[in-house]
Amino acid sequence: MLGNPKNSSDMAPGSPSRWHFFWFSSPKTFYPLAGKLIPFFAALSAVLCAIGLYISFFVAPTDAQQGDAYRIIFIHVPAAWMSMFLYVVMACWAALGLVLNTRMSAMMASAIAPTGALFTFIALWTGALWGKPTWGAWWVWDARLTSELILLFLYFGFMALEGAIDDARRADKACAILAIVGVVNVPVIYFSVKWWNTLHQGASISMKAAPSMAATMLVGMLIMALAFWMYSIAVILSRVRCIILTREWRNDWVAELLGAKR
Amino acid sequence: MNWGNWSNFWAMGGYGLYVWGSFAVTLLAILIEVGMLSARRTRILGELGTQATFRNNTD
User: Fold this and answer.
1) Using CA atoms, how far apart are residues A116 and A85, in angstroms rounded to an integer?
2) Buried/exposed code over A3-25 (b: 16+ C-beta within 10 A; e: otherwise)
3) Tens of pLDDT along B1-58?
4) ipTM of the modeled complex
5) Smallest Cβ distance to A235: which of B19, B37, B45?
6) pTM, whole model, 2 decimals?
7) Would the CB atoms of A122 and B37 count as touching at under 8 Å?
8) Most buried of A229, A234, B25, B53 (most Cβ within 10 A)?
């Protein structure tokens, strides 16, 4: 997104070539932008969630084999997707922060970690509740389940490491390395059902083959995935605003902002 | 409508515990996350507000 350079004090006049790409990489400009975006994404998430839940329970038919227990997948699959997707996004921000040394990137990475952990937990929890009636076991040490559990520990490790290092900039670097190394686990989770003979079924949706489920089930799942996605954006933006305030509070713009509120 | 009446809906074809256990915990987790975030924001704004007042009074 391009910002309006007219308001920038640090820009030489008449230098459109410096129209920045980095405009919103400054906490000062990103903080109010995030504040404006949060209600939009929150509302979108609520609407999509309502539609998704309606389809999950009232439109999608009962599954011939699994009965109504299959309805758990309307949150299980989207949560599992989000858990992997958020990890990759977190690792990208962390890598960007490490390479470009931009403050916002590291703050984005640490804002993502708790929400990623939340979706990983939901994926594991709903998976257990689906596994019990369907497989007869809450948990098996299957490659898919085990690698997803490792993902949860990677998120926890990231947060613990961040909390253990007092200097925020040093913590950013250590966490970035952890996040980048841990990203190898994501393809392992995704392809585990192909690489190993797992109890967990194969991918629900494949790029190559036609979906193996009823169209309404697929639509419900995709809408729930979008709802989780929008929710994640709203929550992560709101968390990054907290992180910006705790890290940047010494700067004048924070004082001005708070002064304007009073 | 798949269910005919509400008790069928809550029973989920005998899988009520598993289905509602999944959806309820997901909802709970989301509520906890949103609640913690809102408490965090209130706390930070409160602390920064106190500091600003202190600074103004000592200037």
Assistant:
1) 9
2) bebeebeebeeeeeeeebeebbb
3) 568 888 888 888 889 899 999 999 999 999 999 999 999 999 999 988 887 777 777 6
4) 0.89
5) B37
6) 0.88
7) no
8) A234
